[in-house]
Amino acid sequence: MANSMEKDNQFKTGKYIVVYDDTAGTRNLLPKENEIVKGYEKNTILEIIQIANVENKIRGQVAKSLDWVSIVDTVHGYKWLEPISETKSDLEWFNAKSETEKQVLLEAITVSFKAYKNCDSFEMKNEMGKPAYGLSAKQTEELCEYNRVLKKSLPSKPSNDDPKLLQKRNLRLLIGNYLKSNKDASNLALANKQTTDILKTRKLDQIDPVRHFIKIVCPTLLAYLDGQRSTELSERKAGELFDAVKDIFSPEEVVGHDNIEAILGEHAGDLYDYIKNTTGYDPTEYDPTQHYALYEKYVDKIGQHSVSAHFGFDVQHTERLPLGTYYAEKDCSGLPSKSVGFKKPMSECVEKCQKDPNCNACTIGSSFHFFGMVMKPHKCYDRMRPRDTYTGMALWIKNDPKELPLKDEENTKQQWLVRRNREVSKLISDKVIKNHKYAPKLLQTIPDTVLARATEFEQSHLKDDFSLFD
After folding, report:
1. Using H for helix, E for strand and C for coil, what is the string for 174-239?
2. Looking at the structure, do residues 102 and 178 belong to the same domain, yes or no?
3. CA Rg, the chain, in Å?
4. Average pLDDT for 326-348
5. Using one digit for the tens of pLDDT, what is the confidence trace for 378-429?
6. Which of 155, 178, 265, 277 is in the most buried spot, having the most CB atoms within 10 Å?
7. Is residue 1 part of a domain?
8. Are 435 and 384 in contact (CB under 8 A)?
9. Within this chain, do residues 130 and 183 fall inside the same structural domain, yes or no?
């Protein structure tokens, strides 16, 4: 019987979103000619209380108004409505918030989704779990799916009670000029300071060498150090975290929810304090005179003794001096060079070369105890040759022609750190792609955290040193 109220197993009652503008609502299940009660605008949320399969269409009855709307054409697949994924909470936690809070969360989830492309992304759940937003992993996934289907935020025009929105110029002042190449982020007007925490944390991961290294090798560990509870992780992610903590810090112990805090407190208290302080109210900035030893220590530990600390993070960088480019597994020791002294570190060579207009490069000599400055007229960039440096950055070229040109006033300490971090990432990506068996053990166990990024680094390294890493 054509008008039988036969339920279709693929469609259930619940919340639906209108995907076709001016979708017709009719008084009867089988609409009479020209019978239209009202038209529903695109993105309207409807509560469907009854489902029927009639004349090759799935139709639903709308709560309160009790009119009927078409959901999908079962022959041609045409859709007027789409179901919003059901959740136990039905977004009641979200609907209970103020309009301003809703807008803040939707704007933050939009930025995060553009960055991570997946509502089930661990990185997204980590960002949205920060104190500024306080969402659980489940709430993040629910809100992301809702926002993805909705495809637009709640009204972005603030009411008189809303905080003043940041303009693009002020946003850049807050989170840095390196965002100018990311149109999505720089064009987004974010409400109040808390909303910018997601971008500020991503900026920290760009410019802080300790955070950056942990993130590319073991992002679950950084998330935990940042405050993500292990019980909020999926079983797979929690397993990755426990295995990493065991391998790095406590090989003799079984690590789990009940003892991970104590193990990290005992074996990595200095790291725990540093990560916590970088995101505090008065954040600690990386300083080579104070923090290089910490960086070097944990690169060795977390890299499972297979990655060397980047000497560039030991340099006392001065504003407006050349950033240059570091290379591992290469040298220019075949060229005449000016020694900086026996057992003088590479950082001292680079600092001198930056300030000397006649110096073009710093290169390793016969060993890591000898570094020399390559002076004019000799140019190192076209005379580089392979050299086993055991992942150590042993060559620095002041003006590599492949570098992205920078204006003098833009050569800041932050840009120095960003470029050095990208060199580390490029090195690790190359190790994973080209020589996987020699890559750090952690990278072999969770290659999906690096391999997807490796392609990006191969394509973009030195083209844009200041785009967002993720």
Report:
1. HHCHHHHHCHHHHCCCCEHHHHCHHHHHHHHHHHCHHHHHHHHHCHHHHHHHCCCCHHHCCHHHHH
2. yes
3. 28
4. 89
5. 888 888 898 888 889 999 998 877 766 666 555 678 888 988 998 888 888 7
6. 178
7. no
8. no
9. yes
Which residue intervals of 14-165 are DSSP H helices?
Answer: 92-95, 99-116, 122-128, 137-150
CA-wise closest residue to 63 among 14, 18, 8: 14
Tokens for 355?
A: 């300030």
Final residue belonging to a domain, choices 57, 83, 109? 83
Are 403 and 329 members of one domain? yes
Report which of 89, 134, 87, 90 is spatially closest to residue 108, judged by C-alpha positions: 134
The C-alpha atoms of residue 431 and residue 41 are separated, in whole angstroms, by 53
Domain boundary among 22, 51, 83: 83
Helix (H) or strand (E) holding 397: strand 393-397
- Lookup: tokens for 407: 């204006």
The dihedral built from the CA positions of residue 218, 224, 228 and 233, taken in this order, carries a sign that is: positive
Which class for 171: exposed (0-12), middle (13-18), buried (19 or more C-beta within 10 A)? Answer: buried
- Note whether 99 and 245 are same-domain residues: yes
Contact 66, 45 (CB under 8 A): no
Q: How far apart are CA 338 and CA 332, in angstroms?
A: 12
Q: How far apart are CA 4 and CA 222, in angstroms?
A: 57
Say if residue 346's pLDDT is above 60. yes
Same domain, 265 and 319: no
What is the rounded CA–CA span in Å between residue 397 and residue 376?
Answer: 13
- In this structure, are 213 and 349 located in the same domain? no
Number of domain units in the chain: 3
Decide if 466 is inside a domain. no
| Cα–Cα dist 139/9, whole Å | 27
Q: Is 155 exposed, middle or buried (0-12, 13-18, 19+ CB in 10 A)?
A: exposed
Spatial separation of the C-alpha atoms in residues 197 and 212, rounded to whole Å: 17
Beta-bridge partners for 81: 18
Task: Quote the domain boundaries for residue 22.
Answer: 14-83
Q: Cα–Cα distance between 440 and 85 in angstroms, integer?
A: 40
Beta bridge partners, 335, equal none
Residue 27 in domain = yes
Distance CA 107, CA 137 (A): 17
Query: What is the average pLDDT across 358-385?
Result: 90
Please check whether residues 210 and 345 belong to one and the same domain: no
Residues 113 and 259 in one domain: yes
